[in-house]
Amino acid sequence: MILSLAWRNIWRNKRRSLIIIAAIAVGLLCGLFASAVMFGMGDSLINTTIDRDLGHIQIHTKSFEDDKMLTDTIPAAQKILSEIKTQPNVTGASARLIIEGMISSATSSGGVRITGIVPHDEMNVTTIHNKVITGSYFESEETNQIVLGYKLAENLGIRERSRVVLSFQGLDGSIIYGAFRVTGIFRTESTMFDRSTVFIREDNLLTLLDSGPIYHELAVRVNSVQNVDSIYTGLQSSYGYLSVKNWKELAPELKLMDEMMGMMMNIFLGVILFALLFGITNTMLMSVMERVREFGVLMAVGMKRRKVFLMIILETIVLSFFGGVVGIILASITVAYFGIAGIDLSAFAAGLSEFGMDAILYPILPLYFYMSITVMILFTAIFSAVYPAIKAIRLKPATAIRTF
Fold first, then answer.
1. Tell me, what DSSP letter sits at residue 188?
2. Among 59, 61, 129, 395, which one is most buried in terms of CB atoms within 10 A?
3. pLDDT (average), residues 181-202
4. Between residues 60 and 141, which one has the greater pLDDT?
């Protein structure tokens, strides 16, 4: 009976009820979509970093992480690489030879990170091969090919088929020079990466070093983020003498952002709901003040004050619930649409690339966030109804009937 009365009371003033439902719905729509955009930005930054060069897991010697010395190579790296490739849920593993050196063209020079790779293996771990905008990604059998970032190419004043010279320190401490021809220029989401990284075949680099196969880094790609922890734990157990780190340890700033994003968005939505709270409280208080005589009559004929209190609480919950459901439905449709179509931020591409973010943003909102906002709406409704309900049950029946 109380619920039925609450339902009827809501629609006694349809215009006011519809306005407060619309206010709640629009507030939630804006709040949830803004949250989805923020989640999308974080997700984009994490995924582009993993896809670009990080991978899900990396293995080094413990000394290489500290000093980055050329001689700090992984013992039996090829054997370890073969073992990792056979593990379930591992979609790719690549061995890298990493050297800090210089690159020179006819007009300029600069420092770079020289990465020697096996292209076929690297293609299973990173997406650089899909980012080539000019030329190709080691498709020909030509020796001494080099693939570099567009920003580095601009700084050096070179283009496809140009010649560059790499110089770096050899294993014996001598300076080694090697001439390479640019066969591919890539453009990723990170300007910093594009201006400081070059890729060459590992056999060409080993020839210059006059060395057998040596590697400083093993990068591992897993088929799903959910399987990273199990693979990571297994590799740590098998190769405890090496430094095995997952992407969260390799990029702690991404881990912090991933952990803090949910909390920040809950706080953000909490602020929006806190603002809506005053609107709901004002609406219910107006409703109570318009029905003082009615409450007086109900209490005079025997309705207990706790039932009057419960009725007002139920009115507020039902009103907020409808607004919340409409807002969540609109938000989910909007997020789903832009999650597929994307939001074009090409106008800000230069600034976004400095942070390693893509110019096309895909909003995303985890399912648990919808559940979280539902609980928040419920508590907001209850809290906003308390004051109007207390105002109603404090009325004296005789005074209420006579005065109003």
1. -
2. 59
3. 92
4. 60
